[in-house]
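Support reply, case 0932

Customer input (verbatim):
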Amino acid sequence: MKITIDEVGRLLATAASTHVSDQEARYFSDCIVASHLRKAPRMQPIKEAIADLNVWKNNDGRQVGTLVDNAGVTIFDFNGLAPSLKIRAIHDEIERKAKNNGIAAVGFRNSSGIITLNMWSAELAKRDMIAICMFNGGTECCVPHGARKGVLGTNPIAYAIPTATDPILLDMATTEIPFFELKAAKENKLPLKPNAALDQNGLFTTDAGKALNDNGVANLLPMGGGFKGYGIMMLIEVLTGPLVHSLLSTEQSSGWNPEEYGFLMIGIDVGSFVDVSLFKQNVSDMCATIRFLPPAEGYSEVQIPGDRGHTNQKRCMSSGEMDIDKTLLEELRLLAQ
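Our regenerated output:
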């Protein structure tokens, strides 16, 4: 159903303010709404935010702990809580340390999971930072190159780069297709794209029912289907596993167990390296040159990562309204009481 964007933002902030400061609640709300406008309907950040609010509502006195805190690195233990409600504090922390050191990193473990990485990186670009985020969620989803069975997570990665206009934004699983696409294809009996998955015998298949068994074990292939994508997935495994005091996919329990997954965000302060305005203009000029290229057959234009999301967001913002499932809206209103 249709509802004003301002009303959704107000409800999210009101619900969050029960658990965090008013400033953190408003920041959380703004991040969720912006991410939803960019990513929906393919992804549903508001639905995930409601789940996170329920985690905090049912909190039994748990506190966010700090495992590492030095000049350039902070690592948090979320003790099963949802990190999205603390996104402002995390962004403030990485910005402060990056301003002092040029580069800083924040990691965490033992959380209730990550809402789309898009908002974790996008908001830092507004602070004239390059942000790189990654998460090793979802064990037994991806087949190592040359193997037959899913072992690794889908290991999503995102980055944001500031420009003179809209930031460059990328948010993707490092499997050839994301897990939610595989799950939706199985539920709706739709074919998968070729060379994206294997069946339970290790053979190529476009049948989602053969690539995803009833226990949630998926046989997705790394992006590109070969060794290069697999190599990137291995890097993400290490950076979001033992480096942040969390577990590798090979150590995790079967199924969806977010407390066992790790997250890493690297922030690069552009101003510590180069004049910010010059940097932004250089990147914007590159984007303009690429967009001006003649499109290939079957394409109407050449896009930069993030263009589609920015277009979606601006279209909704111009109308002042957004679509939200009626049941989700009712649940959000209850949380905001």
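We compared this against your earlier run and they match. Two observations from our side: The longest strand covers residues 262-269. DSSP finds eleven helices and nine strands in the chain. Please reopen the case if you see a mismatch on your end.
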